[in-house]
Amino acid sequence: MKTNKSFLIMGVIIILSLLMAACTPAATETAQPPETGGEQPTAVQPTAEVAVATSVPAEKTLMVYAITAEPETYFPGYESTALASYGFELVFNNLTTKDLQGNNVGDLAKSWDVSDDQLTWTFHLVDNATWHDAEPFTANDVAYTFELLADPAYTGTYYTMIESIAGARDKHDGNATTISGINVIDDYDIAITTSEPNALMLDTMAGVMPMLPAHILQSIPIPDLPNSDFAHHPVGTGPYKLREWNTEESLIFDKNPDYFGGPVNIDTFIWQIIPEPSAQITALLNGEIDFINVTADDFPQVENVDGVGTKSTPGSRYYLMNFHPSDPLLADVRTRQAIAHAIDRDALLAGLFGGQGNVESCIFHPSLPEYDASLTGYAYDPEQAKQMLSEVGWTDTDGDGILEATGVAGVDDGTKFVLELGTMSTPIYIHYNEMLQQFLKVVGIDSTINSMELGIYFSEYFVMGGPWQMNGSAWSNLIGAPQQELLWNITCDSNSQYDYCNPSLDEMVYANNSIFDPTQRADNFHAILKIMQDEAIYLAMLRPLDLYAFDANLVMPDFQSTMDLYRSLPTWSMK
Q1: Which tens digit of pLDDT belongs to each residue from 224-239?
Q2: 273: β partners
């Protein structure tokens, strides 16, 4: 925001109308379209009012970014949403990171050496990084972070990302108390030895998770970490310090004057929580906030407006269809494939996003070499879907339009084919699953929609061993490297919600670590993606564009993804 205004810092009072409640987006920072697509945009209405009392001196610069919901935690390694992962970029650092061109560059590690046998990586750390409480960052913090991920008491999903370190599995399995492959040489040098050569080591260091402060956390029992004070009052080494977390209102960050990465231009950054997209637009046009994600239907309202800039980038999120293969109704791969043939993805794109984006078949971001443009997914063919279901043993024996089981393995004869589509209680996901419900009905599958709060969804429902069966949701790309996405979701040790284990596919996934030729490694990724498509565990369906609107006085680099946006924020400025 311009520096001659007064703004809300200590408290944000948001008075929201309910007129457009159906347009509430998903609970991440990524823009979501309204519940229905293709309608003509309506005039902006004053659906929000922001009242302010400020303590920011006039010479200070302030940026306010509207988000639709707050992150569920600020403790790395226990997050379940993309918003939390993006927010970590403000407060924490990794050993390495990615520049805007996707290259591996140093972060808390200024340089590194690799042994001739490609097994030992020695990272040389910066010597001027301090935690936000002024304690120095050292190699002991790196060791603590990795030791945490391998501990049997750690319940997050990041263990697989450091599994290649020698001795990590021994500790994870309870056969050792420390990781043998970690050697703290001195305060600013640490050697990490892997069991086998790891061509993706730098990708892992950039995406494994941020470094954590050992001096604060090592005295807390690991089972108590997720609910500790740190989850809402984090201490990192990053460009911003979280000053205040006003529940369901705002998160206020002050720049770190001692940031080792260089000067931070914006003095105060605020995530202001405004659930209504229409209210966000009104606040932007009134000069009360500086940056918003925009839905496809709302984008025309902010284009060509004096003082407002706009930008679109290839979608950082893809919408997918998830199957729980351990559920008896979905255990036969032919059933999952048949359902995929029953879904009209072009209709989904039009109905959810007004056609703004692309039908998608690959789970990786198009900017990456691992992306496979040759994947075609499952063509919309409801007749083929019906035929495949019949071959499995699903037929409509009583003529009521709903299929019954006859000879379906693991399912009692006569069982109706009825699925629960469990989803988060935000209109975009509800509408997505309502559209899936309509397509399922055409091929004889009945379904109900069970919507729930985000916290319940990720902690009790959409988890390993959870009661979910099938749903439509969205994942964000570029938070972790493609290898990490595979390790998180489909390997036997992943602890993921899919409960999927295919040892032969595991071998292919872990082989990526030892393939040093980029072309050969990309080919192996593509082979893995083809198997995943054929197995129909989770299928990419759509990739909508990311659309942004902002105060034209903002000066920013040409970011091409949401992750690039957050990583580049320290360099942003106001004219």
Answers
A1: 999 999 999 999 999 9
A2: 67
Nearest-angstrom CA–CA distance, 559 and 570: 13
What is the SS3 assignment for 297-348?
CCHHHHCCCCCEEEEEECCCEEEEEEECCCCHHHCCHHHHHHHHHCCCHHHH
Report d(CA 24, CA 22) in Å as an integer.
6
Average pLDDT over residues 70-95: 90
DSSP state letter for 526: H
pLDDT digits (tens, 9 = 90+) for 185-239: 999 999 999 999 999 999 888 876 899 999 999 999 999 999 999 999 999 999 9
Mean per-residue pLDDT of the chain: 87
What is the three-class DSSP state of 540? strand
- The answer to whether 574 and 60 have CB atoms below 8 angstroms apart is no
Q: Under a CB-based contact definition with an 8 Å cutoff, are residues 162 and 204 in contact? A: yes
CB 394 within 8 A of CB 403: yes
**Closest alpha carbon to 73 in 65, 86, 84, 87:** 84
Separation CA 573–CA 560 (nearest Å): 18
Distance CA 535, CA 528 (A): 10
Distance CA 571, CA 575 (A): 13
Question: Helix or strand or coil: residue 124?
Answer: strand
User: What burial class does residue 356 get, using C-beta atoms within 10 Å of its C-beta: 0-12 exposed, 13-18 middle, 19+ buried?
Assistant: buried
Amino acid found at 492: C
Q: Are 258 and 131 in contact (CB under 8 A)?
A: no
HSE (side-chain half, CA atoms, 13 Å) at 275: 21
Q: How far apart are CA 260 and CA 234, in angstroms?
A: 18
Rounded Cα–Cα distance for residues 167 and 189 (Å): 19
The residues pairing with 472 across neighbouring beta strands, listed in sequence order, are: 321
**One-letter identity of residue 28:** T
What's the CA gap between 287 and 260, in Å, rounded?
32
At 542 the three-state DSSP class reads strand
User: What is the identity of the amino acid at 366?
Assistant: P
Q: Coil, strand, or helix at residue 416?
A: strand
Q: Is it the case that residue 20 has pLDDT exceeding 60?
A: no
Q: Give, in order, the Cα–Cα distances in Å from 473 to each of 68, 143, 462.
A: 17, 35, 11
| DSSP for 437-479, written as a single string | HHHHHHTT-EEEEEEE-HHHIIIIISSTT-S--EEEEEEESSS
Q: What are the φ/ψ torsions at residue 39 (nearest 5 degrees)?
A: -80, 155
- Residue 503: CB atoms within 10 Å: 8
Closest CA to 186 of 135, 261, 239, 136: 136
Q: Which domains does the chain have, with CATH numbers?
A: 13-83+238-313+548-574 (3.40.190.10), 93-229 (3.90.76.10), 317-544 (3.10.105.10)
